[in-house]
Design a protein that fits this description.
single chain; 489 residues; alpha+beta; Rna Polymerase Sigma Factor, Chain: A; Arc Repressor Mutant, subunit A; 7-stranded antiparallel β-sheet; 4-stranded antiparallel β-sheet; 13 helices; 15 strands; elongated
Length: 489
């Protein structure tokens, strides 16, 4: 749509575009307000003077709304106002005739400002992430520096089964299904073996003067235990190794061939025996280790929730809700959840905006042992660098001990608005997946979808009864929220 030479001049409120008020109802008839008449002249006749009049009339509303949302950044507020009015100009002919211009502009300014904040935060997050990676490379954490010199000696004191369990799960970051497959045990048995092996490793390290909680030790092993080798080194080593193998003396190959030949008859006989006894062996194995039956318990979060699904639980976003999710018992990824509302925690961005949100929810009752915890959750407000701890689940055991499970942005969850241009589109934790996607009016207006993530956290002390759980904000820039929590007994 062309607007003539004036629209190409430097931007100001007198040469830009704005929207309209709706229609008044009078005795069953629609009467056009002045805003609607001005917009109609622009939409049908291209009357720029009518739009300039609307700009003068409504600019302060859009600009001041953006200015508040952007924490006083005047330059960015001007850009946001410009994008709001550009958006309105494109949609002038598509909007319903009874739309209230003031409300439309206000919501559009809120959403455009939120998007601008996200874009700016993503840029800063990428810079901070790059800086953090550089700092980590140059200055390792003191806790890791204490652990590194004694780790391999401690690992050597574990049994082969326990050592393999730790190596597979923490060093190679394999989930329990993969660990079980490698160790030829069930998923549950693999989980218990990893948990026991981690406790034994902690005890061995403690005797060496290095103490760490189960959760912090698990994090250190997963993040610092296996740093990435220089790019291309693995391929170079493979090429060199293959070349060396090809140049080996022929006698070595002959010895190997003779050794293999000597086993052929033995292997053939063993194969026949396995085929003959296979049915009986399988019967014994499955009779002793029946198929896995998980016992789930959904936790009641209704007394801790501060938002409902039908309405926005943060100010200034009237219909930014989870109504499409629906209340009641739902099953995602084979796990049941009791969905009643939302627990929204505080974050730095929401705190700057003055949102009255809690920094923690203390004492969610459990009263049971648990092998795993399944959280239905997401992030909100803005983005943080990947790996930032945005929340924690603090498990309080019946013996007075406690452990903390960190919830990290980009690892266990992302923003609940799935922006098409988001720099990070998937979480890195193998035990996290998108459990649900849907829509709401503001997200759809901006071409985004809404989503929730399901994360499985392993309880490092599955034999102990969990009395209560605390849900605590990490007070990062973003603000996490939880919809449901289920335990696997």
């Amino acid at each position: 749509m062309a607007f003539g030479p004036r629209m190409r001049q430097p931007w100001n409120r007198h040469n830009f575009l704005v929207g309209f008020h709706g229609l008044r109802v009078l005795k069953g008839r629609y009467v056009m307000t002045d805003d609607a008449q001005q917009l109609s002249r622009f939409a049908r006749e291209g009357d720029e003077a009518a739009f300039r009049e609307l700009v003068v009339r409504h600019f302060d509303l859009a600009y001041s709304t953006a200015l508040r949302q952007l924490n006083g950044d005047a330059q960015l507020a001007e850009d946001v106002a410009q994008s709001v009015f550009t958006d309105l100009a494109r949609k002038a002919r598509l909007l319903p005739r009874n739309v209230v211009l003031t409300g439309w502009l206000y919501e559009a300014a809120c959403f455009a400002a939120a998007k601008a904040v996200r874009t700016e935060q993503r840029r800063r997050a990428r810079e901070q992430e790059a800086l953090a990676m550089l700092q980590f490379t140059r200055e390792p954490e003191p806790e890791w520096e204490r652990l590194r010199p004694v780790l391999d000696a401690a690992m050597g004191k574990l049994s082969a089964k326990d050592r393999n369990a730790v190596l597979l799960h923490y060093f190679e970051r394999k989930d329990f299904r993969a660990v079980g497959a490698a160790l030829r045990v069930t998923d549950d048995a693999a989980q218990k073996r990893v948990s026991r092996a981690l406790r034994k490793l902690r005890a061995i390290l403690a005797r060496s003067g290095v103490t760490a909680s189960a959760s912090s030790l698990a994090v250190l092993l997963s993040t610092a235990g296996v740093p990435s080798a220089p790019a291309g080194l693995a391929l170079s080593v493979a090429k060199t190794s293959l070349g060396a193998a090809a140049a080996a003396p022929a006698s070595v190959a002959m010895v190997l061939m003779e050794t293999l030949a000597s086993f052929r008859a033995l292997l053939l006989g063993a194969s026949i025996l396995v085929l003959f006894l296979g049915g009986s062996i399988a019967h014994l194995v499955y009779a002793r280790h029946p198929a896995e039956h998980r016992h789930f318990t959904t936790l009641d979060l209704s007394h801790s929730q501060n938002g409902d699904l039908q309405n926005s639980w943060t100010p200034a976003y009237g219909n930014n809700h989870l109504a499409a999710l629906g209340q009641g018992k739902r099953i995602f990824k084979g796990v049941p959840f009791d969905i009643q509302g939302v627990i929204q925690l505080q974050g730095q961005e929401f705190k700057r905006r003055g949102y009255p949100l809690p920094e923690s929810i203390i004492g969610i009752p459990v009263g049971s042992c648990a092998r795993s915890l399944y959280v239905l959750h997401a992030n909100s407000g803005t983005d943080d660098p990947v790996g930032t701890t945005v929340a924690s689940l603090v498990l309080h055991y019946s013996d007075g001990q406690q452990t903390e499970l960190a919830i990290r942005h980009g690892i266990h969850l992302l923003d609940w608005w799935d922006w098409p241009d988001a720099p990070v589109r998937a979480t890195k934790d193998p035990n996290t997946a998108v459990a649900w996607t849907g829509r709401n009016p503001p997200a759809e207006h901006h071409g985004a979808r809404i989503r929730l993530f399901e994360t499985r956290f392993v309880n490092p002390e599955p034999e102990k009864q969990i009395q209560t759980i605390d849900y605590v904000s990490g007070m990062a820039n973003s603000a996490p929220f939880m919809v449901a929590l289920t335990i696997d007994r």
